């Protein structure tokens, strides 16, 4: 019996304080592409996304909306799930940290850390950013303020907390990242973390006083668990809750650079302390910028799912985000760029090629049968997908589209007769099927339409991507 290889991929679980913006959408679309690729390779996939529903930031957002926090996150969870459905995101688990079973597992793991001597009580004094839900070192601040959040989200705080002995595990983490035992990619993000690890790393405050919206510490109910600590544990707790333990550890944590430190340092340190296996890979993308500024809810410049879907449709949105993927550096985007790219690559490029070949086939009564000759990815495209260079993979597919277009213009099938035109068009159909197969993880609806259209008797169909 063939045993399927297992592949566990996660997005970060996102803060439940607003609707998703372009950064959340892109990270989730990229993860979906990787999950679909592995599924097409015959692997057994576990794909997790979800919401981080506790903490001061969420409680404040609920208060602003004049709602009870639980009602607030319940409504948001439904919204996020509906957006992922619209974007054709095929996740297996939508993890919510208000799940009581998650709270139980978090309590058990922290108790274990305390019993092992990895947690102690002390006073913390310093600058705290509500937006990031973390205490900030001087190096993280610009003129005493958090660069990512408004000044009103930063305050001085002094309180009794419980601390995790993060510093104890830093030498092992540093060595692990340097030696590739903790595989962190791309290289630019690995270097950032290694540089930061050269500085002094303080122990991590893992609890908060006066933040009632959270998981209570089992041994001190005045304190709630620091939201980032319990959020990271979701990747593990989900495998227990949904009885998917055989998928642990994660094959890939896919995230944006704002979460790099938490996933590359704090999370492995917690796992080492708990004697649990480490993730097999952590991949960190850059940010989307508009006019050089990071896109974010707190900065009020976010591009929403409605904006994107309303204008470009599902696969149009998936394409534009992937084509502009901030692989190792940040990417500057705006609607004029998206419009131009949509028209040139989708309406004119892929859409026009499919339409003109379908019309030629219809005029020449081409019937291809239902055999799909292509059942694998092109090697260069596969390599790009394996390295998460999703934008490069798309570029290679569009090179193929361009080559087929050039071949049609060169051979002029409208001037050919009899067997010459038939054999040329059949060969062209095979090339389009090959393009559609390679497009499956990226544009699932479009590739399915193309494969359906170019099987059996080939007929013209409505434009895949109407011009804007």
UniProtKB/TrEMBL annotation:
Example GO molecular function term?
ATP binding
Q: Enumerate the InterPro entries for this protein.
A: Met-tRNA_synth, Met-tRNA_synth_2, Methionyl/Leucyl_tRNA_Synth, MetRS_core, Rossmann-like_a/b/a_fold, tRNAsynth_Ia_anticodon-bd
Q: What class of enzyme is it?
A: ligase
Q: Which UniProt keywords apply?
A: Aminoacyl-tRNA synthetase, ATP-binding, Ligase, Nucleotide-binding, Protein biosynthesis
Q: Which residues form the Methionyl/Leucyl tRNA synthetase domain?
A: 7-150, 156-357
PANTHER family of this UniProt entry?
METHIONINE--TRNA LIGASE, MITOCHONDRIAL, METHIONYL-TRNA SYNTHETASE
The similarity annotation says: Belongs to the class-I aminoacyl-tRNA synthetase family.
Protein's name according to its UniProt entry:
Methionine--tRNA ligase
Organism encoding this protein: Candidatus Daviesbacteria bacterium RIFOXYD1_FULL_41_10
